[in-house]
Amino acid sequence: MTDSPGRQTSRERAPRNIPSLLTQLRQDRFTGAVVVEGGSGGTLFLRDGLVGAVESPAAPSVRSLLLKSSRIGEHDWEAALVAVGEDRPLAAVLTGRGLISDAELSVICTAALFDGAFAMALQPVTGWRLDPGRDPELGAWPGHEPPRLVEETAVRLRTLREQVASVGEFARTPVLPAIRTDVDGLGSRDRTLLLSVNGRRTPRDLAFATGRGVYPVMIDLLRLTARRFLVQTVEPHAPGPVVTARSSERPAPPPPADDAPLPRRSPSRNLPQSRLPANTQAPTAMSEEQRSTVLRLRLIRNALSDDVPASPDGDPHTADPQTAETPTAETPTARPPVADPAAADPAANRGTATGRHKEPAS
Amino acid sequence: MEALQSVLGEVLSAAGASGAALVDAVTGFTYAELGDCMPAGSGHEVCQLLRLVDDGLHEAGAQGELESVVVTGRRSYHLVQVVPRQGDPLLISTLLDRSGSNLALASRQVTAAAKALRV
User: Fold this and answer.
1) Is A30 a member of any domain?
2) Do A41 and A139 share a domain, yes or no?
3) Does A59 reside within a domain?
4) A281: β partners
5) Which of A311, A342, B43, B84 is deepest in the core (most CB within 10 A)?
6) Which of A17-21, A30-34, A81-85, A292-296 has the lowest mean pLDDT?
7) For chain A, how many structural domains are there in total?
8) Pure H helices in chain A
9) Which of A312, A315, A333 sits opposite B39 (nearest CB)?
10) Of the candidates A200, A133, A138, which has an alpha carbon nearest to the alpha carbon of residue A172?
11) What is the DSSP letter of A240?
12) pTM (predicted TM-score)
């Protein structure tokens, strides 16, 4: 059953119509599936117009998140599927058998939902049809309001666009490892991801391989690239083209924005043969600011190193008072926290132009 | 969803706690929140703060993994606790009123509540 044919005719504008379709379905309190075509496609599952699950070949499903990350073993999973009955949905079986906690399952289902929406936003939409009465395997019920889904997807795209020129290209380009021997400083998450990089896998492949979401994997890949553990294969964020409102306000962002995008840290040693584009002033330009942050953070380094290695489960309260001493924000509610330069930093890293513009003022 | 709310309810039962949020440590997505979380900023901002501290510390040569960050204001604490799990870690961001709370106890309570998130 195909709904709203009028919208589907204008194909160029189709991607923008999914949000409005969802808004309309929310008003109609639609229950069922919305099968979206285009790219590798995908399906959104709604109850009363609230989105509870997104399944798409473009992003790992809840099932693959659970199995690939070996949170639940294949055997247990198969057994649980068998036990599913009319009045016993899969979620109830999984939690009932103690395979996963309610809260954990809820987190994973929600993460998969928003990641699926993000992955689908990266591909063109050529049409859709409604399929009432279909239910997903697992979902984040009662579901989320469509505007929240749309808003979060936009935030994710914007976050990535601040760092790479083309998010779609980034998602499709194989990730190349840099030659590094000093991976000791990396956390286990980064190390696992780095070990899965083999020069052929794209960010999406890596997400499936590691049992994580596409967006978190992309975020981590960009962090690792900035720290030069990966070779920069996609063009970093180019100034100008996307940001219309800002560029009209300040006509001269190109030079500063140019050097702000991807490279956030300048490790300063063991530089790999990463093929950074010609405009690599970024590390040097950033380094002064970065360095002062690093210096400040050294002050609390010991507090961290002392209590962690032995037992990650250890009592946290021993460490906290020490950490607490470092910053004292003027206002109680001030969220720019640990140190003011620190607070200025993310702005410089991410919202390129904004961060830079603050500098002269302060 | 209710399961997450109940975890946060436990966090909020700490003396002096006025708001708590459960945030994804990688994406900054807010899974659930309870009470007034506005002063702590959005989940994305909390996540950015943690990343900044974490990256900075490692850049400075620290080993090990970050467990919590406390921002102390004149009247409030903002406690961000990392909840390690099998997948991407989560953050529990808690706002505490300094006059009515004990930071160490609150931190313990957050850790206890975080255990309910595990399998």
Assistant:
1) yes
2) yes
3) yes
4) none
5) B43
6) A292-296
7) 2
8) 5-9, 14-27, 62-68, 74-83, 90-96, 102-121, 146-161, 167-172, 188-196, 203-210, 214-226, 244-249, 254-259, 281-307, 320-325, 340-349, 352-361
9) A333
10) A200
11) S
12) 0.71
User: At A100, is the secondary structure helix, strand, or coil?
Assistant: coil
Three-class SS of residue A298? helix
The pair of structure tokens assigned to A300 is 């609390």
For the record, the structure tokens of A277 come out as 């584009």
Closest CA to A178 of A276, A85, A300: A276
Q: Check whether the bond before A332 is cis (ω within 30° of 0).
A: no
What the block records as the tokens of A319 is 């460490």
In a domain, A114, yes or no: yes
pLDDT tens digits for A135-177?
A: 888 888 888 999 999 999 999 999 999 888 888 889 889 998 8
Residue A202 has pLDDT above 50, yes or no: yes
User: A73 and A43 in one domain?
Assistant: yes
| Encoded tokens for A331 | 């206002």
Give dist(CA B16, CA B95) in Å, integer: 8
- Chain A residue with minimal CA distance to B105? A317
Sign of CA dihedral A166, A171, A177, A182: positive
Residue A336 DSSP SS3? coil
Last residue of a domain, one of A208, A231, A254: A231
Helix runs in A49-101, H state only: 62-68, 74-83, 90-96
In chain A, which residues have their Cβ closer than 8 Å to the Cβ of B85?
104
Partner residue facing B107 (CB), from A140, A186, A320: A320
* Chain A residue whose CA is closest to B4: A103
The side-by-side arrangement of strands in the sheet containing B76-83 is B30-35, B17-24, B90-97, B76-83, B68-72
Give me the torsion for CA of A227, A240, A252, A351, rounded to 10°: -40
User: Chain A: nearest CA to B96, how far in angstroms?
Assistant: 10
Short-list A173, A160, A322, A301, CA closest to A237? A160
Give the minimum alpha-carbon distance from B20 to chain A in angstroms, rounded to a whole number. 14
Residues 6+ away with beta carbon under 8 Å from A164: A170, A222, A234, A235, A236, A237, A261, A262
| Residue of A95, A101, A107, A186 to mutate, interface with B, max B Cβ within 10 Å | A107
Q: Are A266 and A287 in contact (CB under 8 A)?
A: yes
Question: B-chain residues within 8 Å CB-CB of A219?
Answer: 26-27
Q: What is the pLDDT of residues A89-130, one digit of tens each?
A: 898 898 888 888 888 899 999 999 999 999 999 988 888 888
pLDDT at A269 over 60: no
Hey, which residues 167-196 in chain A have their CB within 8 Å of chain B? Answer: 184-189
The pair of three-digit structure tokens given for residue A212, joined into one six-digit string: 């994580």
Six-digit token pair at A195?
């070990």
pLDDT for res A264: 62
